[in-house]
Records
---
Amino acid sequence: MIACLCVSALLSSLLLGSPGSAHAPAEGARSEKVLHLPMRSAGPGSLDPIMGSTVYDNRACVKVYEQLLQYKYLKRPYELEPLLLAKMPTSDDGLTWHFELLRGVRFQDDPCFEGGKGRELTTDDVFYSFKRFVDPENELKNWWLLKDTIVGLDEYKDEQTARVEAGKAFDYSAPVEGFEKQDDYHFTIRLKEPSYSFLWKLPMFQFSIVPHEAVEHYGKQFARHPVGTGPFLLESWVENKSLTYVKSPTYHGSTFPTEWMPGDEELGIEQAAGKPLPFVDRVEITMFVQENPMWLEFLSGKLDYTQVPAENYLEAFHKRSRRLKKDFKERGIVSHAVPLLDFIFRAFNMEDPIVGGYSAKARKLRQAIALATDLYEFNSTFYNNTNIIYDGMIPPGLDGYPPDGKGPVSWLDHDVERAKALLAEAGYPGGKGLPVLDYYVSRSGNIPEQAELFKRQLSKIGIRLNVRTLNFAQLIETINRKKATLFSFAWSSDYPDGENNLALFYGPNESPGSNHFNYKNAEFDALYEKIKSMGPSPERTALYEKMRDMVMRDTPFIGSMARTRFYVVNPWLRNYKPDETFYNWVKYMDVDESRRP
Amino acid sequence: MWAYILRRLLYNIPVYLGIIALLMVALRVNDPVWGFLGKNADQEAYEVKKHAMGLDRPFHEQYIGFLGELATFDFERESWTQQGRTVGDLVADSIGPSLAITVPAMALTTLVALVIAILSAYTRGRLPDKFMMVSAVLGMSISFLVYIIFGQYWGAYVLNDRLGTEVFAIQGYESGLANWKHYCLLPVLISTIVAVGYDTRFYRAVMVEETNRDYIVTARAKGAGKGRIMFVHMLKNAMIPIVTRVMITMPFLVMGSLLLEVYFNIPGMGRALYKAISENDFPVTEVLVALFAGVFILTVILTDVIYALVDPRVRLQ
Amino acid sequence: MIRRFLGSRALRKFSRDKLALVSLVVILLYLGVAGAVGFFGFIDREDTTDRIGPDNQVGWFETPTVEQRIHALEFYLDQIDGALGRRDPAKALAAIDFFGLRLASTDPDEVGETLDEVAEPFDELYEVLEEDAFDDDPANEERLGDVEEGILGMFVEPEGGAGRFRRLALAFGTDRQGRSILLRALYSIKVAVQIGLVSALISVLIGTLLGGAAAFFGGWVDAAVVWLYSTFSAIPYIVLLMVLASMFLGSSYEGTLVPVYVAFCSTFWIGPCRVIRGEVMKLRELEYVQAATAVGFGRMRVLMKHVLPNTTHLMFINFSLLFIGAIKAEVILSFLNLGVKNEPSWGVMINQSRQEVISGFMWQIGTATFFMFALVLAFNVLSDALQDAFDPKHV
């Protein structure tokens, strides 16, 4: 039976595929503008925004879906602008926010609509999409984004969950106190506490606006049949392999931005300014689990751009000046450096009997370990000196980041002598009396190799590590159960505000929440509750700094580093300014097919 | 014969039940739900997921449920990491690419290895034998991973670059016979080069062993030609080890093709399984392994049956 | 059996085979190194983890490129610069030690002065290099030579044995972390031999006994063995490994080689078991076995004395295949980051260098592959020769 299945599958895979369709571009294909882009992963898990969480889900979703707000493509530091809104939301007190939708935005044509024609987007769609966060059907995967935020939403969630448990259907028509509809284009959302970071959440892809017809029509399959208002339609998704999009004929038509930063002119942006989006007809994305093939495909001109794998960095770039090397320049390749909102650290479990706790002894032990760690060696060995090393948890470019990365409380100067002294003060002279510490790391990429280096650095002050390499799932589980003594981890900011990172030290977020350190400090928690409702201001920044240094004195982690990601772009790709905070840039890209080899 | 086959099948049912129980326990040693939830996990989401997946039910209920699924070929459970895709879809999509690599590779390897082994045994101890054995051994003394890395770099990238046309794709997969050479031939060749050494040595040893059997000595004494002895008498008698060999290599093909699939971006079973395990895609792992075990047991039965067919001396009881 | 081997015929025949003798020497050499590393600490683990110099240095006989030379110099300058910035620079300067390579002077003022002298021409050269203009002026080569002399001149090479050891350790270059590739590859011999011997020996032993017993006794014994190997082989290798890895999680064996052994043995024994079971199924039908049983020898005795010895050649082949198989499977395990931890191994080395191939740095992958290649090759040739020698009927 199974043998039969195998044989027929083999035959069908060999015979039924359309011969010759794959690698020989059809006649006249050149008249069509096609992007060939890589994705350095096995691909997205879902194209339903409410089920997504990874960068790859994000990249795959935002081509089809749109949100109320978006980041300005070329502006740095980041600024928001309306996308599905007619203008930026307004509020007098940070509690009640007034929204006005753009008129005439239609969903993409799809069989789920009556007559197959997409209808206009209205206020109800926004509320529907936001209510999906609490539907148990969606496993509450992204509920953390709206928990304790909107008036009445938590209560709505409890009511509806009770209904579902009682065997009744989830009722999307039931009202939520904080959602108020004025008409099809005007609505207000009331928050529990004044919050400005709420606006930063709205451009996140989980807040995409979806039509209820598609969700109802496709059911579970909605994750594979996205229907949005965005510039592209999904044509095909071959698992682990490729994603193909085509231009949506009914796109409401936004235009290329007319403001940019100095230096962006080199991207050829002037001629694009003000023109309707998108520029290309097709987008073909290939997934790469390994970096080698991705890099080779780029070198042979099959990909329009690629991120530069750390191991291949010196092939393309000069080490000190970070300029492209000669043969890359001669081919017309352009490079971009994108600083990431990264917080890469090695963490202590503050509830661990040896390294945890708030006594002077435990603190000194952690500080000794931090001082024995040479992040600069990590940077030169594994990152070609392209990382930014800094004090604290707030990544470069955000409020609360110390000037030049050096804070008043700092453990960055790899000082072996001082580390030895602190270790002795902690009661472990030369490491005596200290058991072998378990160090948990993920086994992906070169992280085990980095662990070898860490082990060597700590051995210089007499601390021994037992490296435990786990897969990511096991690592998360060990951390969530508070069983990891010392572990390597990283946090990418969900939105560009230091508050997102400070939340990692907020007591109530302890494991299995995002406070993996299980750090508890009543003073810190009180300050955190205070800053949550503050808008950007010098006072808030001062509080951020105070909180940062407070944590640094307790030293629950060793760090920090933020990566810089390098991109190389082939000369035929235009208008591309890579970014790692938002991912809807494909609609801005253009390609000059005549320059393609 | 049919009674024998039936008996083997019946006999293997308890074996399979045991395997499934073992597998289910093994996969539940570490709680699969936490791993799935990722960086923003909280207790509430955990409970919801656990309940939705039925993982809070007593073990025997889950066991019976899973057996029911397997018995009816009803793989409607949804993948945890690939929304909207059932395990059945996943198997159906990935089996083709996997077979497009592994079946030709296995056939080619066995063919090449048998021919070399027979020629080698035929000229045993003399220069051609030595030459063939040394080259077989040279081939198998280098790691598979190294072959893949260099094969991809030289065999695809550098070759294409030098010739100016694309001979082999650096990576990728398209179904269809016309695309097979472009995407699959290079991985198949690499995998053949790696495996042929092992098989050649094994088959040669078997052949050499056979030359010492009494019947060969008799045949030779009677004046039968050496070639005829080699290809007719010995090959037939050496069939048992050869069949066993081919059968036992099959499961390892999954492992072997995993690396090829990862490097050449071929969306096959090995990669699907690896992805499922490393991302804690619990239902996919469970079903894939259970299916694999099923196929494996069928090959065991098949081996026994072929034993009986090839060598009548093996008693059916 | 040993008597039979030492009994002239097989030995004589074996000793005529030149290739086999060479292989034997190679294997003994490997075993010698493995023993020296394992029992006498010929290479300390620290030697394989400590920095010996700048990263990605080329080995003997390859001339480093200008870029590699400048990066190496940059490394030394950074070391000195870093030390000068410490609270106690003299102490930090004295602590600079790469396998005996130390600063000639640890007086911060003196070092600082020399540093100032070389830093400027060095930076200029660096800039020239990064403008892709180094080759434009032949005088640059000379300037680089001067700078090199200036910077490396601040260091003194160790003398005598330590100096020879250091030079030898640099013979195959350094890896990304500035560790000696040669020392790591040599140390890996121990790891490889250990893994190969233990896994192959145990697997063949288990496989032969179970397979032989299953075929010979039949009945419930056969059923039990078949059930056992069906179960083990029916769960794919990789799943078994991942499950084992998590089973050992938190135990004191985690981080040692034990999980690797268990993983290999639990899958490897199946091969010999099936082959030997198949063979014994044939053997037990042969007249002499039937005769031995009829004469009234105990069944166990017949199996051990009359049946299993006739499968020796299969045991040998399986042992050699599994030994090699274990060494090679370790590479795959390391690729999945499930293999050897806390020690270097060829698999770890190959895995860490797989990206370097494209950038043309072949020393690490080449060295690891070569060391593995020689051992596997020798082992293959030897076992072939042994098989031939053991075969009394061969003409």
Note: Chain B touches chain C through 62 residues (CB under 8 Å).
---
Amino acid sequence: MQIIQYLINGISIGAVYAIIALGYTMVYGIAKMLNFAHGDVIMVGAYISFCVTNYLGLPSAVSVVAAVVVCTVLGITIEGLAYKPLRGTPGLAVLITAIGVSYFLQNAAQLIWSSSPKNFTSIVTMDPISLMDGQLVITGEVLLTVCVSVAVMVGLTFFTSKTRTGKAMRAVSEDRDAAQLMGINVNRTISTTFAIGSALAAIAGVLLCSTVPTLMPTTGSMPGIRAFTAAVFGGIGSIPGAMLGGVLLGIIETFSKAYLSTQFSDAIVFSVLIIILLVKPAGLLGKQVQEKV
Amino acid sequence: MLKIDDIHVYYGAIHAIKGVSFEVGEGEIVALIGANGAGKSTILKTISGLMHPRSGSITFCGQDISHTDAYKLLRTGLAHVPEGRRIFLQMTVQENLEMGAYINREVSQKDLETVFDYFPRLKERRKQIAGTLSGGEQQMLAMSRALMSHPKLMMLDEPSMGLAPILVDQIFAIIKELHKAGTTILLVEQNARKALQIADRAYVLETGKITLDGTGKELASSDAVRKAYLGG
């Protein structure tokens, strides 16, 4: 029974990774950049939610909305100020800028909220469900996280395959110049992508801290890196890939903590990644497109 | 309709276009011929706003477009079918056409029918992923995609590239039809013979400069052009 409990916990944390990974993958697919500050946007989202609940005393639903709004604006601002001026320059410049933005956000958070951890109150008030005489416990957080991540994936898939803006995003992702020749405003499309990615980061932040309640300025960085790994694992640029990668990563992490070693769990996770990439360089669901000349 | 006035274009430090001027009048087919690397595609990219001239001006329908962003130009009636087709390979034929009609917001059934009349083969393949089409079909899709926006001027960059002779004939026949239907054409081609056959006027481009111009017939019979581009 224990193994099923671990599996449930793994899926739950994996679902959080999946939501973060979806943000990574969307931005990578469309803006062709790795936004290493993505993990720190998660942390900002969690802090906003924390402040709205604890300092303003507003209900948690309001705090989630506030976190989403602030992170969306933050995402668009970061993109406009830091990344957009570098468009057309070698990818390395943007990558290093993203790392810089990541440190900036962490230090700004430390300045505003100090480095001492805050105890995040879960947004879920539901009592855990006990199954099999209490051998199996499913918390409200687990249910919420899994439902939200599935909803996000379905929503994004629908958005990119059915809506005009979503299709324009795919066009930009495939061929930026050709998309411009169709009358698509590439800059605006990239901003929209950042807005969506950052809104997802806010949601991920609240869910993450509802599950693991310690909130500090570095809270987002490790989950951010794990989620990035998940995105690569599943095939970066692919929406179902990010989902699959996230969940698998969560399961592998939980199992290695439970059965192998708590300290080495990250090492194990990354070893699995290396092995997968050696065998399938494009990731599990990544597409290797052959172009016709 | 389109007037290029002494444009200079650079790729970083490389001076690619060295003072090119030419005009395309309404209802004309104008061809730009020249060897590989002469700067033909660069000129088209500069007209469509993917690149910008360092000096000189480009006017389209009386409006200076030298520094207009590429995505705004389709709305002025200027469409560019780029070199190598550049269709969206991972999207379906239908979705590619929808992207062609992006500026109209809605895809009108009538426009789709018009396009399918020109290229019936695409109708059968509308649900197919564009990357699985043959080279000729991809060229047809690239042209159809541009047609969806009802352009006044259509710029075609090497439409015959990599196609079997029979397909080249087909593509050129369609260019003529489009022209008859009222679209002005600016054609860039390495296949000079074909281009000069249908062009009202043509310009010869050599290493970033225009060295000759005249009617299609004049150029086709000029010794210099015959030696350099038509194989003697």
Note: The mean pLDDT of chain B is 93.
